[in-house]
Amino acid sequence: MFGNESNPYRNLIAGVNTIVPLKGGNFTTYINFDNAATTPPFISVVNRIVDFSQWYSSIHRGTGYKSKLSSEIYDSSRKAILDFVGGTCGKDCVIYVKNTTEAINKLSNMYKEIYGTGVILSTSMEHHSNDLPWRYKFHVDYVNIDQEGRLDLEDLEKKLQAYRGMVRLVTVTGASNVTGYKNPIHQIARLAHKYGAKILVDGAQLVPHCAVDMKPHSSPEHIDYLAFSAHKMYAPFGIGVLIGPNSIFDQCSPDYKGGGTIDVVTHDYIKWAELPDKEEAGTPNVMGVVALLESINILNSISMEYLDRYERSLAQYTYDHLSKIPDIDLYNFHKNSNDRVSIVPFNIKGLHHSQVAEILSEEAGIGVRNGCFCAQPYIQKLLNVSNEEIDERKKGNLKIRPGFVRLSFGLYNTIEEIDALIGILKKIVDNKEHYMREYPLES
Question: Which PROSITE patterns match (predicted)?
Answer without folding.
Answer: AA_TRANSFER_CLASS_5
